[in-house]
Amino acid sequence: MTEYVILVSADDQALGRMEKMEAHQKGALHRAFSVFLFNESGETLLQQRAASKYHSPLLWTNTCCSHPREGESVLEAAQRRVQEELGIDPRDIQDLQPAFHFTYRAEFDNNLIEHELDHVVIGRYAGPCILDPEEVASVRWVSMPDLLADVAQNPEHYTAWFKIILDEYIKHLPNG
Known about the structure:
By secondary structure, the protein is of the alpha+beta class.
């Protein structure tokens, strides 16, 4: 199935759609979302991208990232992707809600460009994950202090966008 992204203006007004790979080749600004799930201890769930991913394979990133489909809200898309990638039933996530959004651009060695208006979505979850091996190699729970220390020490272990999102997250939600 061909995947499309929603092209947007700087103020998140839909301008049309474009095939996902073409948007990433051209660096076209499009709508995206990034999910952060936290457990009762305040740890966040990270995923390690599958080895077969077309960019950033085996790097660690936030719980889930993707793009809403045409006619789908950011929250609906977030619920769909946590179920598809991590096997998490959206009904088991508490307080799933938009937190903030921002725009970023990141270029990769394979000439692909992520230029996204990214909606950060947060929620609470305490159950198991059933990983789709085409999407996710592994998961782990980590405290924010340990995560920040590891990203500072080993930035090459994390996706480019996650490091940007993490900086934005700290600015917008300092008490996480």
